[in-house]
């Protein structure tokens, strides 16, 4: 298939080689190369790719460089949980070749929500010159892949391999899939924090790349950010993202086929042992597996229809517990196999023989719609879930086992239930001013891979944050929308979370995105919130940034007083003149760092450090206490206007 000729180029985004303490972002991400947890100041995408290979953290940094022109401190963490295939659906493949997804040698590194392969030309895998259309972003963009006579294709950067089994692919065949990204663990995060403490570059914030599946992982982040302050006397806050609501959970649709390659190929059915034996080829190569349910097709076949669930599979023989009658050898007979589903009224359960409800994205509390059955086309809420058993509160009838290829199990009403369940799941992460949890996503084109991927809202918030001084809130509307990040699609619809339209995440104290009813168009930050107590001034992330800088200044300047000799009063307290020397040093630094007029104004309204006049200082180990009076700038959030209609003569 001929395509429009075009030239292409790659922009190697770079930034300045130096930034002050408020200019650095620390990026912590899983890497598959050089995962030594050593912090490195890096200012170009190419340097990151050379050092770490591609990963989601590098993708964020490329956007950060482009939008802020500031370098990062990158910490490459080892992978604790590998990226995996979450979902496949090959019911759109009418040929005999099995398409599968696997990890490359470096491991799956990208979260793909809606990957698809469409056959454009070709017939026999491994022989004909097959051409495919590949998409990793739900068809928003596509790339033509000339598979030729190869039987696999490694998608650049992302660590995903498409494998094509022996057989045929027909024009228009469609295969879809989804994958998860790798994830760090508590040890990896603790090692990263310890490594950061060993170097002396200060940073405004941490960007912890990798969705938090639950509050346990959120508390890992809280622990390390708090330890950084209490143990290492380094002050920062961490941005992290909670698990996403999309794609909607749906049952994997897996089916495999036996179609005779010639008129001489036959199948023989035997009631003794309940077997089906083929004369040529391999059932294993075709993808048949124990637990699948087999349906027989063909004219004048006594065994036509669903036979049962496979109990054993060899290259040439399929074995069932029962249901096979003597017949054959027959030519022209086809077999289709897929997972088996059994519905039970006792316990209101749906049990599958292969695959995993959990891997497919289902969770307790989700509303689920089932279609394609005879007696169980219902919409119910999941109450209990395991890998193979889904349990509802009521509503199911006895049915099955039945072939699952034609049965759809799909999550519905996802937005409201996701907001509710997410708020409940992370409610225990409370009164924690050093962590900012984001929820919801925005679509942005990767500067490296070119795909339009759904990225955490924190990516957009953080890139906006580093475009300005630390006292400037990311939700200042006058700074414009978050382009290139988008929460609307090409038709102007909003599939992503929008606090203005959906609501609920701010009440749960999550950083999230919004649109404005009267424009301008585009995505904006709704609010950027820490997990500090509701109504606390440090629940606004930019206020935490200013407070951290003030804490750093005081820490550094009071350390300069260690070993200083003071003149004391008769009661052992320091004289006013001696203590004033320390105060002058600290307050001068506060003036320089917080109270002068910077390009975007003062960072605080008041910052005064005062030494205690009552501490006794003529004993070993004497401690001088001090108090920092810090008054942060005000930030407008709500404006109410009354419209007064004037009448003539009024």
Please explain how this structure is put together:
- This protein has 650 residues and is of the alpha+beta class.
- Among the domains are: 25-79 and 184-242 and 426-467 and 475-527, Rossmann fold (3-Layer(aba) Sandwich), CATH 3.40.50; 85-179, no CATH class; 557-631, no CATH class.
- Helices cover 18% and strands 28% of the residues.
- It contains 9 helices and 34 strands.
- The strands form 7 sheets. Strands 14, 15, 16, 17, 18, 19, 20, 21, 22, 23, 24, 25, 26 and 27 form a 14-stranded antiparallel sheet that branches. It has a 6-stranded mixed sheet with strand order 2-3-1-12-13-28, sandwiched between helices.
- Helix 4 (215-230) links the parallel strand 12 (205-208) and strand 13.
- Helix 1 packs antiparallel against helix 2 and helix 2 (56-68) packs parallel to helix 7.
- It is elongated and about 110 Å long.
- The N and C termini lie far apart (75 Å).
- Residues 1-13 have low confidence and may be disordered.
């Amino acid at each position: 298939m001929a395509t429009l000729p075009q030239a292409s180029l790659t922009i190697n985004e770079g930034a300045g080689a130096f930034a002050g303490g408020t200019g650095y972002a620390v990026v912590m991400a899983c890497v598959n190369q050089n995962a030594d947890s050593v912090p490195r100041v890096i200012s170009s995408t190419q340097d990151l790719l050379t050092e770490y290979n591609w990963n989601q953290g590098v993708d964020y940094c490329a956007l950060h460089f482009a939008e802020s022109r500031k370098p990062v401190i990158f910490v490459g963490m080892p992978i604790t949980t590998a990226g995996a295939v979450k979902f496949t659906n090959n019911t759109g493949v009418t040929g005999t070749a099995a398409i599968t997804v696997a990890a490359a040698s470096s491991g799956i590194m990208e979260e793909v929500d809606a990957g698809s392969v469409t056959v454009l030309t070709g017939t026999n895998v491994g022989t004909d010159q097959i051409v495919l259309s590949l998409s990793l972003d739900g068809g928003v963009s596509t790339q033509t892949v000339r598979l030729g006579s190869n039987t696999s294709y490694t998608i650049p950067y992302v660590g995903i391999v498409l494998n094509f089994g022996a057989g045929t692919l027909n024009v228009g065949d469609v295969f879809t899939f989804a994958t998860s990204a790798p994830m760090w663990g508590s040890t990896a995060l603790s090692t990263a924090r310890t490594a950061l403490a060993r170097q002396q570059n200060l940073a405004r914030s941490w960007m912890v790349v990798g969705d938090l599946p639950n509050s346990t992982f959120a508390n890992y982040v809280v622990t390390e950010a708090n330890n950084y302050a209490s143990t290492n006397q380094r002050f920062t806050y961490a941005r992290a993202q909670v698990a996403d609501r999309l794609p909607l959970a749906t049952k994997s649709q897996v089916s495999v086929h036996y179609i005779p390659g010639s008129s001489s190929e036959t199948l023989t059915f035997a009631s003794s042992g309940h077997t089906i034996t083929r004369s040529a080829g391999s059932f294993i190569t075709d993808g048949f597996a124990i637990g699948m349910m087999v349906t027989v097709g063909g004219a004048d076949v006594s065994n036509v229809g669903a036979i049962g669930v496979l109990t054993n599979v060899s290259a040439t023989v399929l074995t069932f517990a029962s249901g096979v009658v003597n017949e054959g050898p027959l030519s022209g007979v086809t077999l289709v196999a897929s997972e088996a589903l059994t519905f039970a009224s006792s316990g209101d359960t749906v049990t599958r023989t292969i695959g995993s409800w959990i891997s497919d994205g289902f969770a307790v509390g989700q509303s689920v719609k089932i279609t394609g059955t005879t007696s169980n086309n219902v919409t119910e809420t999941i109450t209990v879930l395991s890998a193979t058993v889904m349990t509802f509160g009521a509503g199911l009838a006895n049915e099955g086992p039945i072939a699952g290829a034609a049965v759809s199990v799909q999550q519905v009403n996802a937005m409201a239930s996701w907001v509710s369940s997410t708020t409940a799941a992370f409610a225990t992460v409370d009164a924690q001013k050093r962590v900012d949890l984001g929820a919801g996503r925005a679509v942005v084109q990767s500067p490296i891979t070119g795909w339009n991927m759904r990225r955490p809202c924190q990516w957009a918030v953080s890139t906006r944050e580093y475009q300005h001084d630390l006292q400037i809130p990311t939700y200042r509307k006058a700074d414009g929308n978050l382009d290139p990040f988008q929460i609307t699609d090409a038709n102007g619809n909003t599939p992503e979370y929008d606090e203005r339209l959906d609501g609920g995440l701010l009440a749960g104290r999550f950083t999230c995105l919004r649109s404005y009813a009267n424009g301008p168009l585009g995505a904006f930050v709704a609010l950027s919130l820490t997990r500090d107590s509701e109504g606390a001034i440090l629940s606004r992330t930019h206020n935490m940034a200013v407070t951290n800088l003030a804490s750093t200044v005081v820490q550094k300047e009071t350390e300069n007083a260690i070993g200083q000799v003071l003149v004391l009063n008769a009661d052992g307290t320091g004289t006013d003149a001696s203590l004033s020397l320390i105060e002058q040093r600290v307050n001068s630094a506060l003036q320089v760092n917080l109270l002068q007029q910077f390009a975007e104004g003062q960072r605080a309204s008041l910052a005064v450090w005062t030494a205690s006049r009552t501490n006794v200082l003529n004993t070993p180990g004497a401690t001088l206490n001090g108090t920092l009076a810090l008054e942060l700038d005000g930030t407008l959030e709500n404006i109410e206007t009354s419209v007064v209609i004037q009448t003539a003569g009024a």
